[in-house]
Amino acid sequence: MSALMDAITAAFGARILETGDFRGDLTISVAPEAWLEVLTFCRDNEATKFDMLDCLLGDHLPERAAAPFALVAQLVSHTYGHRLRVKTALTEGQAVPSVTSLWPSANFDEREAWEMYGIGFTGHPNLIRLLTTEDFEGFPMRKDFPLEGTVGGRVRTDLRGKI
Amino acid sequence: MGMRETILGDGFYRYDPEGGRPRGAADRPHLMVRDGLLQPALEERTASGICLPGESLDDDEMGGPVQFPGGIAMPVQIERVLGFGRSFSFWPLLFGLACCAIEMMALGGSRFDMSRFGMEAMRASPRQADGMIVAGWCSIKMAPRVVRLYEQIPDPKWVLAMGSCAISGNVWDTYNIVQGIDSLIPVDVYVPGCPPRPEALWQGLEMLRERVKQSRHAYDGLRRIPARDVLAAQTAAAEACAPAAGEVKA
Amino acid sequence: MNDAIAQLIFLIIKAALMSILVVTLVAFIIYFERKFAGFFQGRVGPTYLGPAGAFQSFGDIFKLLSKEDIIPAEADKRVFKLAPYVMFIPAFLVMAVLPFGPVGGTPNLFGYRFDYVIANFDSGLVLLLAMGGIAVYGVVLAGWSSNNKFSLLGGLRAGAQMISYELAMGFAVVGVMVMAGSMNMVKIVEGQSGNFWDWYWAPQLVGGIIFFIASLAELNRTPFDLAEAEQELVAGYLTEYSGMRWGLFMFAEYVNLVVVSGIVSTLYFGGWHAPFTVLDFIPGPVWLLIKIMIMVFIYMWVRWTIFRYRYNQLMSMGWKVLLPLSIANLAVTAIVIAIVG
Questions:
Q1: What domains are there in chain B, each with its CATH number?
Q2: Which of B127, B225, C34, C83 is deepest in the core (most CB within 10 A)?
Q3: How does pLDDT run across C299-317, given as a tens digit for each residue?
């Protein structure tokens, strides 16, 4: 294991639920409760120094009945040039603290994760729909969402004077 | 069937995991508009100057027809001269939605050069444009903007739907894509392809120029233009007179 | 018929001919612009309407005349209608002070004296600068009255740009004024009589370049066309204009192009003088027209070759480079004239 993983496991110990190393592609899994704490550590610690949130995305795994949703953050450090993937598993309706205070770029990513998967974020400054219309119903990237048909949204031609 | 009634009731699909999901052309509102079965958001269409056959609008709501002072309609000869001028000066809106726009740019470039017919002046402001090339798929969030841009273009105007997505939604029969831009704005010429090559778009523009030359518009059947009504009445009167004269002669 | 009536008739004929000539010229200059754009970009440009597309502008005029005329409901309607004319008329007025042939002297036409200038008065250059100042009002009024944020931003940009470049332009022109000892355009041209090395472009090389750059900004042409930056401002102060009102703005822009080309030719390139005195048998108006067309080509060349400045670059160039340079040019010119005489 690399010095990076050593630093993280030393700091959190058993609270890191799982670690992975696929051809140098490092992954850790944490509990939703430790999400903000781990990411804060990753950004601020001298050994990790992840100054950039590459992307933050949701996932839907219906076969995982206990916690069907996943939240994935890809971190990049410009100081050391290393990367890290941080994962957490969520149940339906479970919210995690927003990381917009750590990386402002998380704003849009979290909005998208919320509108596509219904993953809530507490403390997000502006959690509204990003890509679909405001009155869209449903979370279109969930696996149980209909694949065909113009479902959920509608063309709001009545709004055309206000946009 | 419950889903269908939901659609008919308020004119849009609603996410309804229990009640099945809409499938096939019969469930798409814009096709029903064409068949006259469904009239979604009729108020909105009326406000935009587009109305269904059999409906009429006040002149004020239509942005005004071309008329000389005193309410005299435009003579057809002048209309033809203007149509000839317009056909060499069709300025599309500088506007692209998706990958088809790249092919549209290729048409503006040096290999295909749409400026040969005076079309290179793509105006960024819809006020100065003569029509739209709807190049690419239109998401339902973008749709109100597209309609608004269409409405801001002064009369007379023409629309070309470029690519399968603008025509029918292509493979994206999904939650966020308008299934054919003709459900929202009247389309003159359809150019199929994914994306169409610049030559195909060029043929579509030639067909559009032919329509421009003849002063025919996609909205002809959808809204009433008083000048055109006068012309039609005159033609009808002339046709009514002509056989009568023939009988006298016989 | 006394001389005053004859001069009045000549004046009307000159004014009518000049405006007809400029209007026709502008129609073809718009065609040239599109053709040159094609040339510079490896395309062919308009080809099908008329021989080699020569009647392209007339198709555009037919179309623009028949377009629906939209005035936004929230616009200040009177100002909105007025703005194109505020832009259009000053552009034409400057043509009055451009001499296109010899002025004064013996009677040369039907026993009367025919002056090859519409208005021969001592403050011709001031009229030029004043009319450039009024054209700013056209732009700002158009931007303000449209009640559209893009129009307003475009109008303010154009206004700020034209005002800041007018200063450099004014100081550059004063250099010519000092050399000719007069503000009268006729005197300025007479001061340049002789071969082409006697023209003012050689002693006023710096001033001429400053004037050329500033005139690009005055004309709102690339590289200074920020007022119409389509990426940022839709169509700038023209955003809400449609049909022939927009056409008038475009028309005024090209009339301005002709006029400014005429002024550059007059101030720096000898006006109606032939480049060599042996060629004096060719009449002055022909030389002036040739010079104007060459200048118009150079303006188009610049437009389709150079890309647009950023706004802060534009402003810093106007205030930090051109203005000090033009004042230095004026000072040097004045000192040299005072010493040499």
A1: 1-42 (no CATH), 74-240 (3.40.50.12280)
A2: C83
A3: 999 988 888 888 888 888 8
